[in-house]
C-alpha cells in the first residue's frame, strides 16, 4: 500500500521523540558550558611536564631530546641548560611546545624514559593571541605530581612506584660501588 | 575598500584573477552540423555538501542526464606517504589515524600488521582479541554513519543521520575510555596494543553490543521498507560483477555486486578464523544492495563481538620484544592488508634497516572504489549522482592522503 512505509517511519520518529523524554539511554546532549562531562581517566589533550617539589628545580625532564626527535609534527623545542664552562646539564633551559601544531598523539609520553612528560586533560586552551599564546613554555608546562595524581590516579601511582624502585636500585648500586669487595666481584662476574 | 557597485569593479568572468564560472553552456550540434540544444558543464564541489568532503565532480549534462563525469580530487593532499618515509615507524602511527578519520582503529591495525610482518613480531592473544573488538566496533560505527549520510543525501534531512550518530557517540565514548581520544585513537602498537583495557570497559562494551540490535531493528523499520528509499536506491548505480573485479573494487561495494571476497575470510589475519560469521552478498550491485549489505554486515559484526567479548583472555598486551625507541626492523618488504570497513586497506613497506621506512605506500580502499564513479553514473540523473557517491562510501582523508 503506498504511503505505508512513511507512516511506519513516522511511527519510529515519534517513538524516538517521546522516548527522548523518559529513556535515559537517549539523553546525549549536554548543555556544555554549564554542564561538563566527566573525563575518562585515559582522556588526553596536550602534554605537560611533571615536577616533584620545586616547579623549576624539581622538573623530571633531563632534556635528552628523545621526545623532540620522535614527535611526529615536530612541535617540541628543547635547549639544555649549560653551566659556566659550557658543559650541558641534565635540565632544560628552554622547553617549548607549540600547541597549535601538537596533535595530542602522546608519542612523547610513550618514548620518555624518565616519566617526565605526561598528557594533560585540560581542553579549554583557546586564546586570543594566536602566536605567543599557543606556544607553551617551560613554566606554563610545569605541573606538579599532585596534579598528575589528581587527573590520572591509577597511572600516577604506578609511575611513582616504578620511579621509587628505580631510585632504590640506583642507591643499591651506589652503595655497592662504595664498598670495594662486592664491586670487584661484580666485574669478575661480568667478564665471561 | 573596493566598491563593487561601481561598473568598473563589477565581476567579469574570464578576466585574470576572476573566479571561473561554476557552470558553462556548450552548444551541441548534430552530425549534419545543426544546432541541437545545449550541453551543460557543471563543476560540482569541492564545497558542495553532498560530496562528503572536498571532492569535485566535473559533470557534463544533457538535460538532467549525466553524459560525462570527471572526478577531481587532491584538495586534501598532505603528503602522508613522504612524511612517513622521513619519520620513524612509530611516528607514522598517529598519521594513519588521519587517513580514514572515521575508522582510526582499523587504519592502525593495517599499519601495525605490515610492520609486524616486517619485524617478525608476535601479537599476544589478549591484544588480538582487543584488536578484533575495536575493529568490529569501528565497522559498526562506520556503517551506521554511512547509512545516515546516505539518507541525508536522499533528502531525509537529519533524522536518520542523528539516530546513527547517537549510536556512533556511544562507540566513540568507548574509544575515548580506551585510548584517550574519540577519533584519533592512535591505539595499536607494533606487536600489540598501547594500554590495557580500563576497568569496566568490557562490561560497557557488552552492554552496547546487547543494545545495538535494537538500533538496527529501528533503522530497518524506519528505512528499508520505505517506498522513497526503495524508489530512489533500487536500480540506481548498478555495478556489474565483472567491472567490480576488473577495477579492483573491494569491501562492501564488491560484495554488493555478488563477489564473495572478504579478507577476514580469505587471509584470516589476526584470529578471525576462530569466529563464526557469514559474508553477506548482494544480487544486483545497485545502491540498495550496497545499503542493505552494510546493515547485514553490522549484524555479522555483532556476531563476532559477542564471543570475542566473552572469551577474551588475560595476559600481556604487547610483544616483549617490541621496542618503542630505536625501532629498526631488518631490511625487507612487507604488505599488510585488512578488511577495513570501506574495503581492502593495505600498507606496503620497504625497509632498508634504518629507523624510517625506505618506501611507504598506502592502498586506500576509498580511492580505488572511487575510480569507477563515472561508469556508475553515466546515464543517470544528476540527483542520483549524489546517492551513488554516497553509497560508494568515501572519506577524502583517505582518497587524497
Please characterize this protein's 3D structure.
The complex is a heterodimer of chains A (192) and B (401). Chain A has helices at residues 4-22, 66-70, 107-111, 138-141, 145-151, 153-178, 180-190; strands spanning 47-51, 76-82, 88-98, 117-119, 135-136, 142-144. In chain A, strand 2 (76-82) and strand 3 (88-98) form a beta hairpin. The model of chain A is unreliable at 183-192 (pLDDT under 50). In chain A, strands 4-1-6 form a three-stranded mixed sheet. Chain A has a three-stranded antiparallel sheet with strand order 2-3-5. Chain A has a domain at 47-156: Alpha-Beta Plaits (2-Layer Sandwich), CATH 3.30.70. Chain A starts with a helix and ends with a helix. In chain A, 40% of the residues lie in helices and 16% in strands. Chain A is an alpha+beta fold and 192 residues long. With 401 residues, chain B is an alpha+beta fold. Helix content of chain B is 45%, strand content 15%. Chain B contains 15 helices and nine strands. In chain B, helix 5 packs antiparallel against helix 6 (201-223) and helix 6 packs antiparallel against helix 11 (287-311). Chains A and B meet through helix 1 and helix 3 of A and helix 2, helix 5, helix 6 and helix 7 of B.
Layout of strands and helices, then pairs:
The complex is a heterodimer of chains A (192) and B (401).
Chain A: H1 4-22, E1 47-51, H2 66-70, E2 76-82, E3 88-98, H3 107-111, E4 117-119, E5 135-136, H4 138-141, E6 142-144, H5 145-151, H6 153-178, H7 180-190
Parallel strand pairs in A: 1-6
Antiparallel strand pairs in A: 1-4, 2-3, 3-5
Helix pairs in contact in A: 5-6
Chain B: E1 23-29, E2 35-44, E3 56-62, E4 65-72, H1 80-86, H2 89-97, H3 104-119, H4 125-154, H5 159-179, E5 188-189, E6 192-193, H6 201-223, H7 227-233, H8 241-246, H9 252-256, H10 263-266, H11 287-311, E7 332-340, E8 343-351, E9 359-363, H12 365-370, H13 373-377, H14 382-392, H15 396-400
Antiparallel strand pairs in B: 1-2, 2-3, 3-4, 5-6, 7-8, 8-9
Helix pairs in contact in B: 1-2, 2-3, 3-4, 4-5, 4-11, 4-14, 5-6, 6-11
Amino acid at each position: 500500500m503506498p504511503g505505508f512505509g512513511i507512516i511506519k517511519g513516522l511511527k519510529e520518529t515519534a517513538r524516538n521523540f517521546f522516548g527522548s523524554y523518559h529513556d535515559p539511554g537517549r539523553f546525549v546532549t549536554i548543555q556544555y558550558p554549564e554542564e561538563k562531562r566527566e573525563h575518562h581517566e585515559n582522556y588526553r589533550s596536550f602534554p605537560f611536564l611533571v615536577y616533584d617539589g620545586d616547579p623549576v628545580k624539581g622538573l623530571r625532564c633531563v632534556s635528552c631530546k628523545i621526545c623532540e626527535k620522535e614527535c611526529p609534527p615536530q612541535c617540541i623545542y628543547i635547549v639544555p641548560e649549560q653551566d659556566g664552562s659550557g658543559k650541558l646539564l641534565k635540565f632544560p633551559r628552554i622547553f617549548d611546545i607549540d600547541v597549535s601544531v601538537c596533535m595530542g598523539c602522546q608519542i612523547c609520553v610513550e618514548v620518555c624514559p624518565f616519566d617526565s612528560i605526561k598528557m594533560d586533560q585540560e581542553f579549554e586552551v583557546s586564546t586570543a593571541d594566536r602566536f605567543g599564546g599557543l606556544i607553551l613554555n617551560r613554566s606554563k608546562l610545569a605541573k606538579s605530581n599532585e596534579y598528575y595524581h589528581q587527573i590520572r590516579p591509577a597511572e600516577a601511582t604506578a609511575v611513582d612506584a616504578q620511579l621509587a624502585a628505580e631510585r632504590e636500585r640506583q642507591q643499591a648500586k651506589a652503595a655497592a660501588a662504595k664498598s670495594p669487595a662486592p664491586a670487584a666481584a661484580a666485574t669478575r662476574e661480568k667478564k665471561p | 575598500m573596493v566598491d563593487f557597485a561601481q561598473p568598473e569593479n563589477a565581476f567579469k568572468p574570464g578576466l585574470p584573477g576572476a573566479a571561473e564560472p561554476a557552470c558553462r553552456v556548450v552548444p551541441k550540434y548534430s552530425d549534419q552540423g545543426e544546432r541541437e540544444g545545449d550541453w551543460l558543464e557543471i563543476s560540482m564541489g569541492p564545497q558542495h555538501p553532498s560530496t562528503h568532503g572536498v571532492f569535485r565532480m566535473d559533470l557534463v549534462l544533457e538535460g538532467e542526464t549525466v553524459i560525462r563525469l570527471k572526478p577531481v580530487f587532491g584538495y586534501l593532499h598532505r603528503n602522508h606517504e613522504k612524511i612517513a618515509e622521513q619519520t620513524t615507524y612509530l611516528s607514522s602511527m598517529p598519521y594513519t589515524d588521519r587517513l580514514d578519520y572515521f575508522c582510526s582503529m582499523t587504519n592502525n591495525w593495517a599499519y601495525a600488521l605490515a610492520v609486524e610482518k616486517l619485524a617478525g613480531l608476535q601479537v599476544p592473544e589478549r591484544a588480538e582479541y582487543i584488536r578484533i573488538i575495536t575493529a568490529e566496533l569501528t565497522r559498526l560505527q562506520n556503517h551506521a554513519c554511512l547509512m545516515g549520510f546516505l539518507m541525508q543525501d536522499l533528502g531525509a534531512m537529519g533524522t536518520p543521520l542523528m539516530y546513527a550518530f547517537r549510536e556512533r557517540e556511544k562507540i566513540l565514548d568507548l574509544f575515548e575510555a580506551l585510548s584517550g581520544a574519540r577519533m584519533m585513537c592512535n591505539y595499536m602498537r607494533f606487536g600489540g596494543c598501547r594500554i590495557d583495557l580500563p576497568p569496566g570497559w568490557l562490561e560497557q562494551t557488552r552492554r552496547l553490543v546487547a543494545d545495538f540490535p535494537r538500533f538496527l531493528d529501528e533503522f530497518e523499520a524506519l528505512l528499508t521498507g520505505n517506498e522513497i528509499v526503495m524508489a530512489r536506491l533500487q536500480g540506481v548505480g548498478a555495478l556489474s560483477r565483472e567491472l567490480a573485479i576488473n577495477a579492483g573494487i573491494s569491501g562492501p561495494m564488491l560484495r554488493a555486486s555478488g563477489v564473495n571476497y572478504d579478507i577476514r575470510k580469505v587471509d584470516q589475519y589476526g584470529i578471525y578464523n576462530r569466529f563464526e560469521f557469514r559474508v553477506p552478498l548482494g544480487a544486483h550491485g545497485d545502491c540498495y544492495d550496497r545499503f542493505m549489505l552494510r546493515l547485514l554486515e553490522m549484524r555479522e559484526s555483532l556476531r563476532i563481538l559477542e564471543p570475542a567479548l566473552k572469551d577474551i583472555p588475560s595476559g600481556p598486551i604487547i610483544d616483549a620484544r617490541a621496542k618503542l625507541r630505536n625501532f629498526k626492523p631488518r631490511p625487507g618488504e612487507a604488505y599488510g592488508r585488512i578488511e577495513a570497513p570501506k574495503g581492502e586497506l593495505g600498507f606496503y613497506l620497504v625497509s632498508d634497516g634504518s629507523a624510517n621506512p625506505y618506501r611507504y605506500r598506502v592502498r586506500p580502499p576509498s580511492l580505488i572504489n572511487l575510480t569507477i564513479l563515472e561508469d556508475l553514473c553515466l546515464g543517470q540523473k544528476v540527483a542520483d549522482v549524489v546517492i551513488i557517491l554516497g553509497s560508494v562510501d568515501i572519506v577524502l582523508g583517505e582518497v587524497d592522503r
